[in-house]
Amino acid sequence: MQYFIDTANIQEIQEALALGVSGVTANPSMYLKEGVKFYDFLKEVNALSPKILTAEVIEPTLKEMLDSVDKILAINPTIVIKVNFSPLGLKLINILSKRGIKIATTLIFNTNQATIAIDAGTDYIFPFIGRNDEIGVNGIQTITDICSVIKNKNYHTKVVAASIKNVHHLEQAALAGADYAAVSYSIFEKAMSHQLTIDGAETFEHHWLQLLK
């Protein structure tokens, strides 16, 4: 399983990319929190050369969506267009997939939505784990089911586990077969940390210094 850093904080993005994270994704709530302007943010992150960069298209009409897509792809034609799951979003996905434009579908909460988005032509789906848990639905089981369908049907769509609330979610998403996980920087830090690793490094460093004497 590979990783997207899920933030609009440029410092966190820079640090995550330096650590080898594959992609960058965010959402309007994050842009608002960080006080960044959408297109300026895309240009700045694009300059950091992530392997994958997603960009939202959230407009009330199909024409406005397509205009937004053109503006995004003018920054970099490899940016993945991120679309909220909806009837209008599916129409956009269908159009863009026929043009060979990469698409990610977010706000996926069940297998039906996942398969409908796949049929429309999406390249990535973002099933939400934590938000499903909050309404009493087993988010891990949902993503396990989605991964199973994709594997059994030999679909090429990639699964991005989203709404990761803790390291348990992260581990279970990997075991479920998710291709990527979209994580906050704080969760990524927790995933890297293990006390035995820290203790072992301290021991090795101490012994190394003794060897150099």
TrEMBL record:
The question of whether NADP is a record keyword is answered with: no
Sorted keywords for this record are: Schiff base, Transferase
Which molecular-function annotations from GO does this UniProt entry contain?
transaldolase activity
Task: Extract the InterPro entries matched here.
Answer: Aldolase_TIM, TAL/FSA
Domain of life, per the record?
Answer: Bacteria
What is any Pfam family matched here?
TAL_FSA
User: Broadest EC class?
Assistant: transferase
Q: Does the keyword Transferase apply?
A: yes
| Enzyme Commission no | 2.2.1.2
Q: Which PANTHER family match?
A: TRANSALDOLASE, TRANSALDOLASE C
Full protein name: Transaldolase
